Each structure stands twice: as C-alpha cells, then as structure tokens.
Amino acid sequence: MVTMIRTSYLRAFEPLEVFPQEERGRWLAHSEAADSTAGAASRRWLVSSALPDGGLAEVDEGAFVRRLGEAVLICPRRTKLRMLAGLLAFRGSVPEAVAEAFIPESQARRAAHELAVLGDHHPHVRSHILHANWHVPLRWFVAFSDSDRILTEDKGGLRIRYEVAMGQAKKRLEHALSVLEESWLDEGVTEAIRELTSWVGEFSDNGLLELDYGSVASTFEPEVLVDDHSAAELAASLEALEAGDVTRSGEIFSEVADRWTQVRTLEVMN
Q1: In whole angstroms, what is the distance from residue 139 CA to residue 197 CA?
Q2: Which residue among 131, 156, 173 closes a domain?
Q3: Which residues touch 174 (CB under 8 Å, ≥6 apart)?
Q4: pLDDT tens digits for range 100-118
Q5: What is the 3-state secondary structure (H, E, C) of 185-250?
Q6: pLDDT value at residue 188
Q7: Residues 6+ apart with CB under 8 A from 12
Q8: Residues 234-257 pLDDT 10s
Q9: Are 166 and 259 part of one and the same domain?
Q10: Does residue 1 fall inside a structural domain?
C-alpha cells in the first residue's frame, strides 16, 4: 500500500513582468487542468529517491497564476529543481548509512551534476516554493499575522492558508530576526529565520507570499483546524521576547511546538 505523504507549501508569487519574456507566455498558457496534471505527475517523483529520466529541460510544469485586480502574479512550479536540492539536503542531514539506504551515492552525484548544469545555463532560475512533509515549519508562520489567515472548505475538507504582500512579509521577518539576534535563544532558531529571510529577500516586494497547509490540513480534525492560530501564537511569543518576558515567550512557543511535534509523529508512523 502506498502512503500519501502530507505536504505543506510556502509559495512566492512575483509580478509577471519580472520574468524573462520567453517564460511569460508559457506560464499563462497553462490552464488549471494542465497545472493539476503536471503537479500530480511531479509529486510522484518528488518524494522518491530515484530521479526521473530525461534532462531538466524536458520537465515543463507550468506555474501557479494569481490575478489580483489588473496584476498577474506567477509562482513557477520548478518541482525538479526543488527535488534536486531537496535530495542533496536530505542526504547531507542524516548519517551516511541512512542516506545510502534512501538516496544512493550515484543518485546524489547525478542530482549535484544536474543542479550545477541548471545553474550554469539558467543562472536566473530559483525555487519559488518551499515544501515540508507532515507539518508546517514554525519559522514559516513568522512572516504572517492572524489577519492573513484564510479558512476555506473544498471536497477534501477544511483548508488553511495565509497570504501577505511580499514587502510586508520581509519586514516581519527582518524584525523577528533583529529580536532573535539580541536574545539568548538557541542559535539554531535564529539561523532558521535568517535563512528564510534570505530566501524571501530574493523576490519582488510587489509579490505575494502564501503559506498553504496543503494536505497537512487533513491530519487535523475540523474543529482543531478551526481553532488553529499558529501565526498569532508565534507573534505573541516574539512580542513577549521583545518585551523581555523570556518565560512567557518560551511558554507560548513550547505550546505551539508541542502541538506540531504531535502532528509530525505521523511521519515516523508512516
């Protein structure tokens, strides 16, 4: 039996005009149905350890397209780019024996080579999407406030996403980073926010940042999802830390972290 991996996403949308001319028509030409088909096909190998046959240029996955008034915002899928980087990051984060069992060295070498080729031939290409399995990384919530929260329902059940102007997201992350850098917290927490701030900083201020619980939402009971206000809790923790109330800040953070740790135990179970 194949287990569905629950995945959440952080997507960066940019105005159509910031992309090279040759890409613009391709992004707009893909219908929602085509995007859905491409996304489903790409996810099958995104979570596997075997790279798909064929070169990077053979994967044309389209993009998410958002229209806000007269503005057209684009978030390219670039799933294979994310897969290559993700495979290498995973292999480097676990012991060699474990890494070899999931991602053979031959696959890692191939991933590194293809990533290098992509960088040489298309230096402007970068990933507009971060993804996480079985949870939503707490650092993602720092870019949002509770007013950015959108609760919807579709045939799959209740869904949560957050949306904020990219310029506002950058300001919040930069503020959080300044607070953390002046605190005595674990450097690992600060470094995580620093890396996210750097990634968001690559995109146009006129864009949009979206946090989508994706299929992770289905791991919650509906009433629990309705009551989930993780972004507000992280903001309260940061506010307490800035005010010097380290104890209160830690209590709030621990409550949120414990709740998401329980969700992430599903990864171990599966």
Answers
A1: 10
A2: 131
A3: 197
A4: 666 667 776 776 666 565 5
A5: CCHHHHHHHHHHHHHHCCCCCCCEEEEECHHHHHHCCHHHHHCCCHHHHHHHHHHHHHCCCHHHHH
A6: 84
A7: 75, 128, 129, 166, 200, 202, 203, 207, 208, 209
A8: 999 999 999 999 999 999 999 999
A9: yes
A10: no
Residues 109, 149 share a domain: no
- The tens digit of pLDDT for each residue in 44-93 reads 544 454 555 554 444 446 788 998 888 899 998 876 666 666 665 555 55
3-state secondary structure of 74: strand
Domain count across the chain: 2
Classify residue 239: in a domain, yes or no.
Answer: yes
User: Taking Cα atoms as reference points, which of 71, 80, 222, 67 lies closest to residue 152?
Assistant: 222
Same domain for 98 and 171?
A: no
Q: Which of 82, 105, 131 is the last residue of a domain?
A: 131
Q: In Å, how far are 2, 8, 19, 239 from 38, measured between CA atoms?
A: 20, 18, 21, 42
Tell me: do 198 and 95 sit in the same domain: no
Helices 230-242 and 246-269 sit at what angle, rounded to 10 degrees? 150
pLDDT, tens digit, 9 for 90 and up, residues 192-237: 999 999 999 999 999 999 999 998 998 888 898 999 999 999 999 9
Q: Whole-model pTM?
A: 0.78
Angle (CA) 9-166-129 rounded to 5° is 25
Domain containing residue 26: 7-131
Give the CA count within 13 Å in the CB-facing half-sphere of 178. 8
2 in a structural domain: no
